[in-house]
Fold this protein.
Amino acid sequence: MATDIAKAERRVPLTRERVLRAAIERADQGGLEALTMRKLGQELGVEAMALYHHFANKDDLVDGMVDLVFGEIDLPDGGPDWKRAMRKRAVSVRDALLRHRWAIGLMESRRTPGPANLRHHDAVIGSLRAGGFDIATTAHAYSLLDSYIYGFALTKMNLPFETSEEVGEVAQAMLEPFPAGEYPHLMEILTDHVMQPGYDYGDEFEYGLELILDGLAKMHDQA
Amino acid sequence: MATDIAKAERRVPLTRERVLRAAIERADQGGLEALTMRKLGQELGVEAMALYHHFANKDDLVDGMVDLVFGEIDLPDGGPDWKRAMRKRAVSVRDALLRHRWAIGLMESRRTPGPANLRHHDAVIGSLRAGGFDIATTAHAYSLLDSYIYGFALTKMNLPFETSEEVGEVAQAMLEPFPAGEYPHLMEILTDHVMQPGYDYGDEFEYGLELILDGLAKMHDQA
DNA sequence: CCTGCTACTTTACGTTGTAAACCTGACGCC
DNA sequence: GGCGTCAGGTTTACAACGTAAAGTAGCAGG
């Protein structure tokens, strides 16, 4: 009995799952460069080297993190309304990428994609095929959509400002070292559009997405 | 005279320019993680710390590299044929990004953009405005185009294969750990399309670009 | 009681960015 | 001509990183 209590007080053992959750949380908050084996271990009440009993190396850990992110994305249903399914999927991917910005450059680069990754790809292709796209157009559509979604997340992540108010300071700091009037068009669009109250770069996503979906619909009907 | 010869044999002094060129070359070949201050110094016949007389820190160096890449991009002319100008610019950006893959995640993230960066943005906005786009639609168009271009470069860079022949091995290695028939649609598109001789993922770029340009033309005419 | 395994710790190594101090040859100035 | 100043390098040093290698504590099964 005494030993049982001693056991209960013992640290709960690590699992891949628990490590991955903690790793994602850290990366979400501080970016990938804040994710070091030592700090991650510390957060879990463990030395860094303990992690290597559950992951071959840091890359293996990152592979696992990426597949968990893929798992957060809603799979498109297989119904005939491919447009609705693609819209929903696009928004879901964008949301996941903005929740986990560190993942943007990694989602497709892993040489050993996890099951959630493959299932996701399979479902998207299946949805387009079920919607009536032939193979070649499916490939076009998938490339176009993913390029746009990932690119949007990438450029949004990289923007040095978040809110409409911040833009003012940042823009001023950027342009300050240069003679006034050097970049008139940039200046105009910043002051007359981006810095206007209510502007949110995030809203651009839907505009581009609808334009692309409409274009794909045209291709779909032509085929 | 003897001293002159001694002088001539002396090392040519470093300049920002010379360092940046060497840094870009290294990064082009080995990626950003191959770019270390020590190796870069070694390549230039100098100790690592010597670089800090020309750059405040590594970030400053990377800022300079990014602006050189921006300088390689053809500026759009200001003529009324905005579509031609945008097409040419898009291809030029894509080419620059594929030459300098390390730059893709960095182009827009620098808090202190260089002159080539700002000039580039200014010229693109100017070209769209000259083509007849109003301010709001210009913002939409720019966001859409850049998201697509950067996203395409990102996804292409991240593909674990380059040639059509490579796909076979890589795909097999990827799917090998899973039961056959687990991902039928993925399987189909790989075998019946991607692995077919002559397929090149790079060709997808033009397809998507034309679709987007056509969509923008429609918006242009409606306004 | 021994054996061996699992989960974790300890120690150590090479590599990274970079702070701080030091050296050295060229140039301006009286 | 001598002398201070300084730009442009070198040397040394440090903390943080990923991770190899070896050690250890506690339990399971014979």
Remarks:
- Chain A touches chain B through 64 residues (CB under 8 Å).
- The two ends of chain A are 74 Å apart (CA to CA).
- Chain A is about 65% helix and 0% strand.
